[in-house]
Specification:
Length: about 350
């Protein structure tokens, strides 16, 4: 967000862009497309590139800041998209190579929370922190719900609220002050009624303009809809988990409704809320194909949670002997000699 926008008088929140509204929206898109990165995030990534960091290290650093992620994806897709745009940060980093990543990041403008607040860094830092938190939560959601294409999902979670930055450009500080509701779904409904568009739709339009994959845009566009499915439902649930962790009042259905659509039981949902955010601290998305079947993974997850065969069998509604067979197959397939090594190997590879 530009300094000019940050200092401009707040526009009436209920007024819709009209007349020159198309130009105002285009200007807002341009401003958000130039959003600054957190100075510390940029510096850390440059430190990794200067030391010849591997692609996974660079990807993790890129995912610490939405502005950096946008710049890397746009550069990897030649700024205008391509026949097969990078689905996520890891693909983009590999496409750009070390030197390309360094060149993109070196040219980014930054904001610093320790600088004068007049530079408009507040909204950008809130966007960055909430996006990173949602990305962390969505990884656990994806694991529990067995959702694929996790790099694409992580990108959608990181950028799911980018439309809010556009709305702030359009409507000023009143937008943030008056767009606080009991749930994100209620907020989106209010935006559609009062403003004629909601931030999820606006964010999806901007992501498409950037040339990102259609799956990312679709997840962002639908993540506040009451019937969201797949990636959109995963982002919706992760968003609700983060809001609750941040102390926001949320109705129970903001959690249970998307969880039900994802096939996540209330018992498992309670565990996820208890674990967040610590369960994601040492997690890594899988970088190699998992050789295990769905049932073998379920049994292995039970071991990783400290459960005995009888508990795992009861939870999966299988016999103890079947669980024992599944786990012996797990040991054989991944080359583990016992349960501890199996959990260690699978955790390191990001399978559980």
């Amino acid at each position: 967000m530009t300094d000019t926008a940050a200092k401009a008088p707040a526009r009436a929140t209920g007024s819709r862009p009209s007349g020159a509204g198309g130009r105002r929206l285009a200007d807002a898109f341009t401003a958000v497309s130039r959003m600054p990165a957190l100075a510390e995030a940029r510096q850390r990534l440059l430190g990794i590139t200067s030391n010849g960091g591997d692609p996974n290290e660079m990807a993790d650093a890129v995912e610490s800041d939405g502005a950096i992620a946008v710049a890397i994806l746009r550069a990897a897709n030649n700024g205008e998209g391509s026949a097969k745009p990078a689905a996520g940060i890891r693909e983009a980093v590999e496409a750009l190579t070390l030197n390309g990543v360094e060149a993109v990041v070196a040219g980014l403008e930054t904001h610093d929370p320790f600088a004068t607040p007049a530079n408009g860094s507040g909204a950008h830092e809130r966007f960055r922190r909430h996006g990173v938190a949602t990305r962390t939560a969505v990884e656990r959601v994806a694991d529990v719900a067995r959702i694929g294409q996790q790099d694409e999902l992580a990108l959608a979670a990181l950028l799911h609220d980018v439309g809010r930055l556009v709305m702030i450009e359009l409507y000023g500080s009143n937008y943030e002050e008056r767009s606080r509701f009991s749930s994100p779904v209620e907020q989106a409904r209010w935006e559609r009624t009062e403003l004629g568009m909601d931030h999820a739709l606006v964010g999806a339009v901007l992501v498409r303009r950037w040339g990102f994959g259609p799956g990312v845009a679709a997840a962002i566009e639908r993540h506040h809809l009451p019937d969201a499915q797949g990636h959109a439902a995963a982002v919706q649930l992760a968003d609700a988990i983060v809001h609750i962790a941040e102390g926001d009042a949320m109705p129970a259905e903001a959690l249970t409704a998307p969880a039900e659509r994802l096939g996540i039981s209330e018992e498992r949902l309670r565990t996820m809320l208890y674990e967040y955010p610590h369960a994601g601290n040492a997690r890594r998305r899988a970088t190699a194909p998992c050789p295990l079947s769905a049932r073998e993974l379920d049994a292995l997850r039970g071991l990783s949670e400290g459960k005995v065969y009888k508990q795992i069998a009861a939870e999966l509604e299988l016999s103890v002997s079947t669980i024992r067979t599944h786990l012996h197959n797990v040991y054989r397939k991944i080359g583990a000699v016992d349960r501890a090594q199996a959990v260690l190997i699978a955790t390191d590879k990001g399978w559980v």
